[in-house]
Amino acid sequence: MTQDSTIKAQMRQLIQILAKHNHAYYVMDQPTIEDSEYDQLFHQLKALEQQYPECIQADTPTNKVGGKALPKFESITHVVPMLSLGNVFNQEDLFAFARRIEERLPNQKIQYDVELKFDGLAISLWYENGILVRGVTRGDGETGEDITQNVKTIRNLPKVLSSAQVSVPALLEVRGEVLMPKAGFEKLNAENEAKGEKTFANPRNAAAGSLRQLDPAVAASRPLAFYAYGIAQCEPNHGLTSMSESLQWLTNFGFAVGERHFVCDSIQEVQEKYEQINAERPNLSVEIDGMVVKVDDLKQQQQLGFLSREPRWATAYKFPAVAALTTVENIDWQVGRTGTLTPVARLNPVAVGGVTVSNVTLHNIGEIHRLDVRVGDTVSVYRSGDVIPKVEKVWPEFRPDDTVEVHLPENCPVCESPVVMPEGEALARCSGGLYCAAQRIEAIRHFVSRKALDIEGLGDRWVESLLHLDLLKNVADIYSLHEHREQLLTIEKMGEKSVQNLFDAIENSKKTTLAAFIYALGIRGVGETTARMLANTFQTLEALQNADIETLKKTPDVGDITAEWIIDFFQAPHNLEVVQRLLEAGIHWDAPIAPTRQPLNGESWVITGTLSQMGRDEATQMLQALGARVSGSISSKTKCLVAGEKAGSKLEKAEKLGVQVMNEQEFLNFVAQYGNIE
Ligand code: IVH
């Protein structure tokens, strides 16, 4: 290929990408990339064109404004075209912009009007004899869409002009931006989420989506606002001489203008305002993506005129990108404390909104497939405000030839145990359970907790120190700690007495119940109640370990998925080894009450209100020992409600549903008939 054809091919590629995103942005209202990324690509193309003007393609987007109007609204041709703005991204470019102006206006004093650059949708409003007659979108800058009905629903926009200070012109065309202020956006999204409806990615999309509704009632229900930033036509002429005065004049009629705007005497001062506005950005009520710098004097504006489709007298000074392109160097899998495997993309470090990002979570394998992200890919990394950075999209056009699809690892990267991902679940997990180092802390915390083996003396401080000394690889190691007395004494603040207390607590924990032991193992889906049901049903640990899936599923409280998790747990050799060691250490229990002695087997009971002779926990245990399931809510399936003092809505509901109710004394009499149950 000759150099020319290589350049042309590069330009072609950029033009095609830009055209695709332009369509998505202007026509579909569904931007597929960040504005800053679009700008990057646009500037890449512009730079190539500047360097190789002989290669410029006829259909380049650098000399037109945007997309086409949708056919569903009536098309309107703008009498005064709605132009676009050039961009600067740093002080150097800003000063170059000022120099170009000074060269054209030698020896003139130049003042700059500095405004917020609203991140919404540009519209044009026509007022005839003070009455709002038409609202039109920018469209492609030449032709827009008639959205008058929707525009009229915007609450902060004057529909009729009147002013005590100035007379109302016969014709006024005001330009400005329609936005959804941040607070309204958050409220709308929260409401939509509560209703299970679609939420919007950002305020700009929400504003765009609202304005393009064919039904004005929908637009009316959305918290839109209009901010004016210019006058396109005024008859008779308003006689104003500057941009800043124009904004002031518009406020006489009730138009809102940006909450910050300044007139600066020098370009250095403009730079200072840029820093100030950037710092204040989070406190502003609306989203902005930069500021707009305009020559303030209207006569000077006229003298400067336009270059192609942009005024020479104004530019947008954009804030640093919140999205950036970089490459994926690796994809690692991290094992969380509960065994979940999370893919993390290791990136070629890139600055995004002032922060260097080198790792970003990809959440789960589903997200990897959705993005189709691979090692070697070029990706856009997005970050907004304090939000954690995320990979927004993969750029297939930059994908090297030799990439391979990412699959879920078959084995845990920490302990090598098989990775499992039950059907219908989004998250993959390490099946290593108690054996997996990554899951150790959580497993140990759970094992020693009150409803499990209840080793109160083994608090977080101990656990951390013991893990640090490598004395706790899994929960079975708790019972060999006494072999390491000397080492334990080296731990800061742990004297003879604390160590002895710990050993006593561990020793005391050896006598437990089968239910507490099953619960302590931390099998997924097996909470306290399920563990009790399993203990009562299977009676011995051995029977539970050998149970097949069908038998498990028949156990009260065990669903299909939990049954599978139980099977998985007891199939992992590591888990069996830990269980074996625990039993060898001397953990034991009395045989549970046989189901035949469980007269309330399968019944659902509810306890409410205050009990005077026992705690709710104690009453729960009594019922559970008799085989009942104690639930938190009343339904038609509830067998009986035990209602203590101050029973409220549950009592009402039980009465309404005709569920049997017992007071505390009746309950005590009832359980007494079964004798001593524990
Ligand atoms: S003045 C001749 N002022 O920026 C163009 N535009 O790239 C005069 N915008 O979509 C535009 N805030 O809607 C101007 N304070 C502001 C603005 C602003 C946002 C948008 C405008 C247009 C884009 C121009």
From TrEMBL:
<protein>
    <recommendedName>
        <fullName>DNA ligase</fullName>
        <ecNumber>6.5.1.2</ecNumber>
    </recommendedName>
</protein>
<dbReference type="Pfam" id="PF12826">
    <property type="entry name" value="HHH_2"/>
</dbReference>
<feature type="binding site">
    <location>
        <position position="436"/>
    </location>
    <ligand>
        <name>Zn(2+)</name>
    </ligand>
</feature>
<dbReference type="GO" id="GO:0046872">
    <property type="term" value="F:metal ion binding"/>
</dbReference>
<dbReference type="InterPro" id="IPR004150">
    <property type="entry name" value="NAD_DNA_ligase_OB"/>
</dbReference>
<dbReference type="InterPro" id="IPR010994">
    <property type="entry name" value="RuvA_2-like"/>
</dbReference>
<dbReference type="InterPro" id="IPR001357">
    <property type="entry name" value="BRCT_dom"/>
</dbReference>
<feature type="binding site">
    <location>
        <position position="412"/>
    </location>
    <ligand>
        <name>Zn(2+)</name>
    </ligand>
</feature>
<dbReference type="GO" id="GO:0003677">
    <property type="term" value="F:DNA binding"/>
</dbReference>
<dbReference type="InterPro" id="IPR041663">
    <property type="entry name" value="DisA/LigA_HHH"/>
</dbReference>
<dbReference type="InterPro" id="IPR003583">
    <property type="entry name" value="Hlx-hairpin-Hlx_DNA-bd_motif"/>
</dbReference>
<keyword id="KW-0235">DNA replication</keyword>
<dbReference type="Pfam" id="PF03119">
    <property type="entry name" value="DNA_ligase_ZBD"/>
</dbReference>
<dbReference type="GO" id="GO:0005829">
    <property type="term" value="C:cytosol"/>
</dbReference>
<feature type="active site" description="N6-AMP-lysine intermediate">
    <location>
        <position position="117"/>
    </location>
</feature>
<feature type="binding site">
    <location>
        <position position="115"/>
    </location>
    <ligand>
        <name>NAD(+)</name>
    </ligand>
</feature>
<dbReference type="InterPro" id="IPR018239">
    <property type="entry name" value="DNA_ligase_AS"/>
</dbReference>
<feature type="binding site">
    <location>
        <begin position="35"/>
        <end position="39"/>
    </location>
    <ligand>
        <name>NAD(+)</name>
    </ligand>
</feature>
<comment type="similarity">
    <text>Belongs to the NAD-dependent DNA ligase family. LigA subfamily.</text>
</comment>
<dbReference type="InterPro" id="IPR001679">
    <property type="entry name" value="DNA_ligase"/>
</dbReference>
<keyword id="KW-0520">NAD</keyword>
<dbReference type="InterPro" id="IPR012340">
    <property type="entry name" value="NA-bd_OB-fold"/>
</dbReference>
<keyword id="KW-0479">Metal-binding</keyword>
<keyword id="KW-0234">DNA repair</keyword>
<dbReference type="InterPro" id="IPR013840">
    <property type="entry name" value="DNAligase_N"/>
</dbReference>
<dbReference type="GO" id="GO:0006281">
    <property type="term" value="P:DNA repair"/>
</dbReference>
<keyword id="KW-0460">Magnesium</keyword>
<dbReference type="InterPro" id="IPR036420">
    <property type="entry name" value="BRCT_dom_sf"/>
</dbReference>
<dbReference type="Pfam" id="PF00533">
    <property type="entry name" value="BRCT"/>
</dbReference>
<feature type="binding site">
    <location>
        <position position="415"/>
    </location>
    <ligand>
        <name>Zn(2+)</name>
    </ligand>
</feature>
<dbReference type="Pfam" id="PF03120">
    <property type="entry name" value="OB_DNA_ligase"/>
</dbReference>
<keyword id="KW-0436">Ligase</keyword>
<feature type="binding site">
    <location>
        <position position="138"/>
    </location>
    <ligand>
        <name>NAD(+)</name>
    </ligand>
</feature>
<dbReference type="InterPro" id="IPR013839">
    <property type="entry name" value="DNAligase_adenylation"/>
</dbReference>
<dbReference type="GO" id="GO:0006260">
    <property type="term" value="P:DNA replication"/>
</dbReference>
<dbReference type="Pfam" id="PF22745">
    <property type="entry name" value="Nlig-Ia"/>
</dbReference>
<keyword id="KW-0227">DNA damage</keyword>
<comment type="function">
    <text>DNA ligase that catalyzes the formation of phosphodiester linkages between 5'-phosphoryl and 3'-hydroxyl groups in double-stranded DNA using NAD as a coenzyme and as the energy source for the reaction. It is essential for DNA replication and repair of damaged DNA.</text>
</comment>
<feature type="binding site">
    <location>
        <position position="177"/>
    </location>
    <ligand>
        <name>NAD(+)</name>
    </ligand>
</feature>
<keyword id="KW-0862">Zinc</keyword>
<feature type="binding site">
    <location>
        <begin position="84"/>
        <end position="85"/>
    </location>
    <ligand>
        <name>NAD(+)</name>
    </ligand>
</feature>
<dbReference type="InterPro" id="IPR004149">
    <property type="entry name" value="Znf_DNAligase_C4"/>
</dbReference>
